User: What shape does this take?
Amino acid sequence: MIYVTRRECFNAAHKLERADWSAAKNQEVFGPCANPNWHGHNYVLFATVKGKPDPETGFVIDLKKLSTIIRTEITNKVDHKNFNLDVPFMKGILPSAENIVKAFWDILVPHISKMGCTLHSLKLQETENNSVEYFGE
Amino acid sequence: MIYVTRRECFNAAHKLERADWSAAKNQEVFGPCANPNWHGHNYVLFATVKGKPDPETGFVIDLKKLSTIIRTEITNKVDHKNFNLDVPFMKGILPSAENIVKAFWDILVPHISKMGCTLHSLKLQETENNSVEYFGE
Amino acid sequence: MIYVTRRECFNAAHKLERADWSAAKNQEVFGPCANPNWHGHNYVLFATVKGKPDPETGFVIDLKKLSTIIRTEITNKVDHKNFNLDVPFMKGILPSAENIVKAFWDILVPHISKMGCTLHSLKLQETENNSVEYFGE
Amino acid sequence: MIYVTRRECFNAAHKLERADWSAAKNQEVFGPCANPNWHGHNYVLFATVKGKPDPETGFVIDLKKLSTIIRTEITNKVDHKNFNLDVPFMKGILPSAENIVKAFWDILVPHISKMGCTLHSLKLQETENNSVEYFGE
Amino acid sequence: MIYVTRRECFNAAHKLERADWSAAKNQEVFGPCANPNWHGHNYVLFATVKGKPDPETGFVIDLKKLSTIIRTEITNKVDHKNFNLDVPFMKGILPSAENIVKAFWDILVPHISKMGCTLHSLKLQETENNSVEYFGE
Amino acid sequence: MIYVTRRECFNAAHKLERADWSAAKNQEVFGPCANPNWHGHNYVLFATVKGKPDPETGFVIDLKKLSTIIRTEITNKVDHKNFNLDVPFMKGILPSAENIVKAFWDILVPHISKMGCTLHSLKLQETENNSVEYFGE
Assistant: This one.
């Protein structure tokens, strides 16, 4: 079993704000992340796929195809977008890095499976100091 | 003459959109950067100050003080903010990296001068692929 | 279960030298790391906490609070310090990266637990080429 | 149990091309990686060894010795070389990152074992976007 | 005057070998870089353009267009290629980083000029330890 | 004229403390950098040499030779050392990054000149946030 990782980048805006909370409570819990007029990040996504290398190609998965899947299904839909307003699959979900990475997972799993591989983990880096990782359970 | 550089980071939202242009023209010229609902970046700012080291301290400038100036005058005012809506000194200015770095320059120069030093350059990195640098003229 | 990682940096001096060994033996085993007059590093610490995101906040752990814990309990006590001389919790312990990371672990675990989370791993990078990671067992 | 990681770098040429396939099929499957006249990479190898720190030295493994093993057994044999033509242990093996990392694994395991340690994983980064990791099974 | 920098990456093979020198002399002067079967790098190119920001767009140069020029004129022609064998504009030129960056300069200057801007410098990073920069004279 | 840059790394201890000042004044001016028991850094040195590429080799300077000079004259003398106690050429000089880089400059210039090249600049990075650069005047 080999683990293959592809990195993809995108830039997006978001804020952490619950409509059912007062501005004061949002500010208290989320601090500057609750700024009503948004802020944003250069997100970096690492997708790790595991499998046995194909004896003919030496590939667990063709990284160009993995890149195409991630771009088509994820980054083209979130790059230069607002997670709270522009992204259908995040509708009604608070766009914390934790919630974003789980939404990405649910989207990618069937596409990776269709290629005969297993998605092992998704890591989403929000800043050089903060990141989250999800293994599907 | 020694050149001393301090790095400071902040996260902000912005969009490139002229109110006097149609949506179509904004889209044509600025592409995804014109997304009406904003996007954002992890900006990295490098401030370079030049001067002669003080014979007593060996410092061109106390980097803790330089950091405090940049944080007080710049990053505290733009971190987790929206360049188009939240930043008084960017009012009426299209927040391209070029225009942001010039606005930062004008703010920092007098504070650096007051410390007996000269601001040599400001470099603003918007993504790992894109950056701008300004030398004051 | 989501894994959340916070990065914190600090600078410190140390040496690898056993008082019960001769200078020659220290030099033979530890090489330049045994330099009697110390050397130092820009250490980088990655703390990974695991848990389920809170349904209200979308957070496994508030990263500002995790940062505060790490700074209060660890980095404020070791930054710009000497691991052999200045750090009470390293007293009598040879400050190899392995021993440092275990000492950090024992300090952090109760503070992370108090927040209802589980410390998953601590990674300590000593140089860009050398790092250690501990999972608590 | 502590996990200790050493990073080593090397530069090499390779191509992905099967002699039993037509040029057209190689191009179709491997794309630009099949360029007949080769291309190359700055490879980065991360070797992770696990074990208990020695109570006397505080070391899981002496990183200078781990570095020497990796350089002697691996990087000196592949640095500034061509994986398809110059590397005896890759003879007849398509030099995908997956196949390279497995070949490295088989070479390193006995040398790490001889030192009383266990090789936990090998990660090979081919570009900043692409990497593979192997845990031996 | 603002200086705008775009980063673009590519992977290529090369060797440093003069046909008019013996193998021994090539080896003596170029060391492992003369390996007859090539080696390769992940090259990183930084192109810096200077100019005044357009008052309407806030841009010195549209970075998407600068990226397109660099990709069309340079990186598409050298990525996954062999500098000695595959690149017409390097024919008869020893592909040291110095000579590569000068060849890139001559290609890019007219394209940047056509956009009303001035190419200020090209920096080519061959490894994390080695880079060259050219300012056109 | 091409500018060629070589990166070299070393780890060292230092403190900023004047013997002719009280402990209180040292603390007031230098803050945590005055810690009596030292602290340390992973220093990164970038040496930039300028010249015309040799028509035969395509090299401004053989980077292996430049590396050897820097290691022999500088990094071997400061790596795993204490700038205040162990380094003869820093005797009596407060080891601020500014003073270190000037001392390095004076040592390197004649060695670079002997090779027919000109040292253009030395950049010394003390942390990822702080660096200094010197151009010799």
